[in-house]
Amino acid sequence: MLVSCPRYWALQGHRLHERYISYLSLNQNSVCDVDCQGCFRYPSRKRGLPKESLLTMEDYERLITEFGAAGGLALEISGEGEPLMSHNTLPIIRLASQLGLWTTLITNGHLLTDDMLRELVELQVALVLSLHSLVEAVYERDSGSRGSFGRKMKNIDRAAEVFRGTGWLERGRDIRRAAIHWTLQSDNVGEVADARAFCDERGLLFSIAPLAKTGHAAARPDLWLPDEQRLKTVNALGDESIIFYDEPGGRVVCGTCKYGLNVGADGNLLLDAHGGYQVDISNIRTTSFAEAVRLQHAYSARMFAQLDGFCPVRDPGWLEFLAEQRYR
Ligand SMILES: C[S@@+](CC[C@H](N)C(=O)[O-])C[C@H]1O[C@@H](n2cnc3c(N)ncnc32)[C@H](O)[C@@H]1O
Ligand code: SF4
């Protein structure tokens, strides 16, 4: 299991469903160095948000300090674009670490350097490297960027080396600090067994999650997943999910979404780090932390009561839920 994931906190005895606030997801700007075919990003936000609208490091300092003081457990930086393109990402992680908070950093890894890796391993970081193919031509057809596969492989190997041996055993569970995250889509289903072996060779946790039909993926039915039975078999090759949380009634939900405050790069409060950007909830700059958490509880409760799956954005009813404004 990945350190700082919702089931990790449950293992520590934290009942997320009874806590005031557990996660803080901080999306950075929606720009990226590549252009994956099925990216969550809304095509209209690909060029990024206006610079003057972006939260500053001072805004983050206030927010993260309040989050820590309120008993928050951990940050997640993933969101819409590539977090390593933001100059705030490393300072945010440093500050969180100083305050004793873990950060899960989800990145395509293209921009990782040796210095960064050496620093990240010293900080309280769970490093998640996204990967969707081990075949250069498939990877670069997806990323739309020549040379990206070579950078990716080199950086994964380097990250695996730097993070090797950083895991530990706790209450019978193997806890890891570095993972590969495989977004399962139609063109990589056949590669999962190879990806499993690739992670085992490098001591990396192997996380798999299905493509959500949102953002760019909404207009790419050719990437949507085939038959369910086969998918179950393929999913079984993955390790513990990095987002699941077990509710007392037995339902499994995305813990970072349900129990987290999701904040866009411009400070807008979001229903989820990966969608619903058009919903006008409030902005963290003009809202007190207590009010932001109150809103998070209210919106999250409505969302998870009306959508059945573990992830609102992946739920078949998500677009209708948004269109009919059932979050109100
Ligand atoms: C949106 S990206 C942002 C962080 C970073 N740029 C990256 O790719 O890791 C976060 C994760 O979501 C995955 N992802 C992107 N689009 C997706 C989609 N439509 N459905 C499911 N997962 C998706 C990516 O593969 C990545 O692992
Ligand atoms: S999935 Fe990540 S790496 Fe790929 S285009 Fe989207 S933000 Fe960039």
Describe this structure in words.
This protein is α/β, with parallel strands linked by helices. It has one domain (6-323): Alpha-Beta Barrel (TIM Barrel), CATH 3.20.20. It is built from eleven helices and twelve strands. The protein has helices at 6-11, 57-69, 89-98, 114-122, 136-143, 148-163, 192-202, 228-235, 255-258, 289-306, 318-323, and strands at 23-26, 74-77, 102-107, 125-131, 168-170, 173-175, 178-184, 205-210, 244-246, 252-254, 260-263, 269-270. The strands form three sheets. The chain has an eight-stranded mixed sheet. Helix 2 packs parallel to helix 3 (89-98) and helix 4 (114-122) packs parallel to helix 6 (148-163). The radius of gyration is 18 Å and the shape is globular. The protein starts with 5 loop residues before the first helix and ends in a 5-residue tail after the last helix. Bound molecules: S-adenosylmethionine (SAM) and iron/sulfur cluster (SF4). S-adenosylmethionine binds at residues 32, 38-40, 78-79, 82-83, 106-108, 130, 181, 183, 209, 211-212, 214-215, 217.
Task: Produce the secondary structure layout.
Layout: H1 6-11, E1 23-26, H2 57-69, E2 74-77, H3 89-98, E3 102-107, H4 114-122, E4 125-131, H5 136-143, H6 148-163, E5 168-170, E6 173-175, E7 178-184, H7 192-202, E8 205-210, H8 228-235, E9 244-246, E10 252-254, H9 255-258, E11 260-263, E12 269-270, H10 289-306, H11 318-323
Parallel strand pairs: 1-2, 1-11, 2-3, 3-4, 4-7, 7-8
Antiparallel strand pairs: 5-6, 9-10, 11-12
